[in-house]
Amino acid sequence: MTAFRGPSTNGQGRAPKTPAAKKRLVVPFEDNRHLTRLLGEYDAHLALIEDRLGIDAHAHGNVVILTGSEAACDIARNVLEQLYARIAKGDDIGPGDFDGLIRHARHETPSNDGQAQIATRRRVIKARTPMQSAYMRALDKVDLVFGIGPAGTGKTYIAVAFAAHCLERGIVERIILSRPAVEAGERLGFLPGDMREKVDPYLRPLYDALYDVLPPEKVERDLETGIIEIAPLAFMRGRTLANAVVILDEAQNTTSMQMKMFLTRLGENSKMVVTGDPTQIDLPPGQRSGLEEAVSLLAGVPDIEAIRFTKTDIVRRDLVAKIVEAYDGAGTGPRASTE
Predict the structure, then answer these.
(1) If you average pLDDT over residues 149-176, what whole number do you get?
(2) Is the pTM of this model over 0.90?
């Protein structure tokens, strides 16, 4: 049994660290009406700041008092002041705005250029994590972007918001949304209804995102006129997709040949976004996914970027991150045949 060794003065032991001194920071605000909205119902936004930054935060009159490490208190003050300024301009804020700014502030790297955003007529979508900011900037900068990572990281939603942004500003003339069916062979013939009715169940997440970022009447009108097109992956063969933002969702369920076929549809003045989660492959055993293969083959090609999200980028809710972490810990990743 090894005896306990306390603090040493002869270099043989290591003295315990002195706890970091706590800082007390008082942040004043001029308008109590704006402050009420800033704090949230029952000070819920302050509770979120306490949880994320490990500090104490409470309101007293027209000030917020922060107590904790100097770095954490400085982040909290900056977040509160930025969101107070948004409220003063008439913006709505919610817990996601606090979470997003805190995540960006804690990501101290030279490539962190702040919080990116995408504006549509219906709403402004602000990046909730630094990786979402990198994704938004890649969409704006290059013509082919791969968004890869677990559920809840915003891959598809941000891609649809970007497409809506480009359509509203006349940058492109169309939005084309595609997704492989649950079965990679695209066997849809047994389903009732016309083609749109057959594929609708598979494309529901894309519809949900469209209706969230564009007025419902515009979505319906554009679907009717073909400005927004919903097409199963198999129907892309032989086409040239020009003047459009083209999105392929759930791309982990494409075969190598399907992915090559899709990527080679890219026409003039078009942008292509390919999203997928390599840990949720539904292809038959022994069938390699085209997503990771494409990312590997195209690495280093100019005007193509791959953004890899991780569980730390999950913004859907904390429980989703815990679920992903539990599955990762159990080693339930992609099948060996897809590596």
Answers:
(1) 94
(2) no
